[in-house]
Amino acid sequence: MTTYKNIKGIEIKYLSADPPAPVAGQVWYNSTTKVVKGAINGVGVWSSGGALNTARNQLAGAGTKAAGIVFSGDAGGSALTITEKYDGTSWTESGDLNTGRTASSGSGTQTTALAIGGAPNLVNTESFNGTAWSELAGNLNNGRPSLYAVGTATASLAFGGSGGSAKTETWNGTSWANVADLNTGRSDLAGAGTTTAALAYSGESGLVNTETWDGTSWTEVNDLSTGIFGGWGSGIATNALLFGGKTPAPAFTTKAEIFNGTSWAETGSMATAITQSGGSVGGTGTTALQAGGDNADGYKDTTQEFSTENFVTKTFDTD
Questions:
Q1: Neighbour-count burial for 129-155, b at 16+ CB within 10 Å, e otherwise
Q2: Beta bridge partners of 212
Q3: What angle do CA 196, 59, 278 make, to 5 degrees?
Q4: In this structure, are strands 83-86 and 35-40 parallel, antiparallel, or unpaired?
Q5: Which of 153, 178, 244, 254 suits 44 as a labelling partner, its CA being 20 to 30 A distant?
Q6: Cβ-proximal residues to 24 (8 Å cutoff; 6+ apart), any chain
Q7: Is residue 40 scored above 70 in pLDDT?
Q8: 5: helix, coil or strand?
Q9: What is the dihedral sign for C-alpha 296, 208, 199, 119?
Q10: List of residues 6+ apart from 319 with CB closer than 8 A
Q11: How far apart are CA 287 and CA 290, in angstroms?
Q12: What single DSSP character describes residue 7?
């Protein structure tokens, strides 16, 4: 007779009560309720956070859900230098960028961040020390807006950009170097990861393409469920998130998808549809911070926070 142990290699535990902290994949029999239960991956949930001091779109960001930073952007035709930091509850203005920019990208943390590129075809790179921005001598080799960057202030990867750019550059803390191009050039894309293990996904006109970076080259992997452009990404190469943006219709979307290292699956939808926003780039796909952006109602100052429950207890039908 085939048993659960034959299939999975472990036995179902016989317990009088549900375990206090089950892990995903754990299965047990509750002798009190007389049912088989298990812990499966939870569904992502979005909640509202504190409002930005300045509503804007096309801003960049870095950091984590509890310690985020956003900077630059557009608030009616002007390229902003404004920087704001998030403490998990509210936003506080900090030192301004030296060069106002829109559609730029960011990497790093709240206390050691980079502002990279932007419109109009900027090559400028600036570093943030937690208080003030400094212009760096090392410029991008290919100035462009609508690119995406991941990594740290001393080791970043920037890729894609306007005009369907496939350019990829690495930052070593001093200078940028051209490396292998994306397989599919694109603007308005999102990404996650580090300089040695990254993802590039989504993009102009609603691309579903996802590519992985191994430190040397890009490789096509499984597609997104829904084509998106102008969304935001965060996390690592094996646990990444994409949220917001527009679908090819085009229509503003609340969709969010999570990548497990192999494939994408839809997770909890945002409360408000947003595109061209900023947010966190660090952490994993289980937490994220979204700030600003725009939708049919105009520029936004709203913040949305994402978290995933560690597990959901499921009762299995034993009939």
A1: eeeebeebebbbebbbbbbbbbbbbeb
A2: 199, 219
A3: 60
A4: unpaired
A5: 153
A6: 39, 40, 41, 310, 311
A7: no
A8: helix
A9: negative
A10: none
A11: 10
A12: H
In angstroms, the CA 218 to CA 185 distance is: 11
**Whole-number average pLDDT of the chain:** 92
Which carries the bigger pLDDT value, residue 316 or residue 219? 219
Of the candidates 318, 310, 192, 194, which has an alpha carbon nearest to the alpha carbon of residue 257?
192
Q: Which two tokens stand for residue 41?
A: 């991956």
77-90 per-position pLDDT tens digit:
899 999 999 999 99
Both tokens of 189, joined, read 């894309």
Domains and CATH numbers, the chain: 4-40 (no CATH), 44-308 (2.120.10.80)
Contact 50, 280 (CB under 8 A): no
CA distance 137 to 151: 19
Bridge partners, residue 95, by sequence: none
| pLDDT tens-digit readout, 149-199 | 999 999 999 999 999 999 999 999 999 999 999 999 999 999 999 999 999
Helical ranges in the chain per DSSP H: 4-8
- Is residue 243 a contact partner of residue 271, using CB atoms and an 8 Å limit? no
Amino acid at 317: D
**240 vs 261: CA distance, rounded Å:** 8
The per-residue DSSP string of 163-183 comes to TT---EEEE-SS-EEEEPPPS
